[in-house]
Amino acid sequence: MTQPKIKFDRVTKRYGPLTVLNQICLDIDPGELVTIIGPSGSGKTTVLRVLMTLESIDDGVIYIDGEPFNKMRAGGALAPASNAHIRRLRARIGMVFQNFNLFPHMSALDNCIEAPIHSLGLARGEAVNRADELLDMVGLAGLRSRYPSQLSGGQQQRVAIARALAMQPEILLFDEPTSALDPEMVGEVLQVIRDLASAHSYTMLLVTHQMGFAREVSDRVCFFDAGQFVEQGPPQELLGSPKNERARQFLSKVLEAR
Amino acid sequence: MNFDWSILAAHLDLLALGALNTFLILLLALFFGVVIGALVCAGNLQTRRLLRLPSRIYTHIFRTVPEMALIFWIYLSLPLILGTSFSAFASGILALSLVAGAFLGEIFRAGIVAMPAGQVDAANALGLGFVARWVKVILPQALRTVLPAIVNFITELLKMTSLLAAITVGELAYQAYILGSQTFKYNEFFTSVAIAYFVLIFPVSLLARRLERRGGAA
Ligand SMILES: Nc1ncnc2c1ncn2[C@@H]1O[C@H](COP(=O)(O)OP(=O)(O)OP(=O)(O)O)[C@@H](O)[C@H]1O
Ligand SMILES: [Mg+2]
What we know:
Bound molecules: adenosine-5'-triphosphate, magnesium ion
Number of domains of chain B: 1
Shape of chain A: globular
Structural class of chain A: alpha/beta
Oligomer: heterodimer
Strand content of chain A: 25-35%
Strand content of chain B: under 5%
Largest sheet of chain A: 6 strands, mixed
Distance between the termini of chain A: 40 Å
CATH class of the largest domain in chain A: Alpha Beta
CATH superfamily of chain B: MetI-like
């Protein structure tokens, strides 16, 4: 039995009186690409944000490679994690945001070298070489010195992917990476994600409304609603003939809208 | 009415000294104002209300008390409380620094609050530590946003320095007043000093306008 790369063990997240994640459980295998779908406001982004430690959780444990993440082992029990512990495990995760969140005062290249220099301690020359390779990989070799405001949405999102990859993560989180894009730019970003999925060993967690893309690239699709993973399965099954009533309703609405 | 140029030439040294003092006061008040402003801003950004309170109170006080009253109070009343007196120059710097700290603190806060939350998310997701997050991500963007407001405030502060004439600090306006009263050539001295202030302030305020327009276009 392989050890799950990521494990949510009864994780609960509340915003005031609102319970957004209600004791969620999810295991993700190394190299697996799992897509999360679900209605707007159901908490999909929150799943990614707590995993990226951008939000604290109220209850439960998240494990990375079998190690508790938001807690740490102390003797036989689990104690609150130290900052160093969180930083160490967080470095294995990279995140791509819906609104890119590039640093607007830095060129595409600087966006991709700042964190490797400051967080990984890379020498500038080496960071530049690696950033250039990554920008080349996402098809932006010629645009390294452009600022985000001089790039199209699709190009910005590709820089953001290169920036996340520059930190050499093992896990990649994508939060609706194409939903802020004009339709004609969606394809170029999906192509980059497709390449990452097929040619690399990243473990990926993707939130998307692109059902066709989810069906094509996912190893597993999870339907999230009302604070829980309601149903999960292979893409053909879950997207084709969901057993859960709410999943069925959601999918028929999404497919109608297209 | 004839304008006596020679009287200006004869006292050019004192006028130059006044201008130098004005400049020095501006720089010192600005320096301490930035330090105080950063502290006030840090307090104002705390999530716990109790921790914000000192900054809130500070800001309210020094933005509402008229500068002139504050200057007199620090020069004349504060020594009674403390039992020691400061020079007029030091009192003036203290008064203007306190005022500058309140205004700059608010300006800094506005710049930081205006920044999209996604920027900090991205910095955190990339593992940037506290220092790198502030130095590389937050401050450059916040400063760019508020640069016009800062430059505008500098022109206000420059005008405020002339209030220190009231407590005999030898800056430009005070020199004009003293020289005028000694020579009875008030017109010559105050006209030239008014023009000097204009020449100093006008380019700076043009710069602020330009920065504002550039910011609006971006
Ligand atoms: N910082 C916050 N404070 C309070 N409530 C929040 C906060 N962030 C999110 N929420 C609430 O938590 C719920 C889940 O939000 P989340 O962004 O995870 O949903 P989502 O499934 O990603 O939705 P969408 O498809 O619209 O992106 C929503 O009801 C939202 O209003
Ligand atoms: Mg979302």
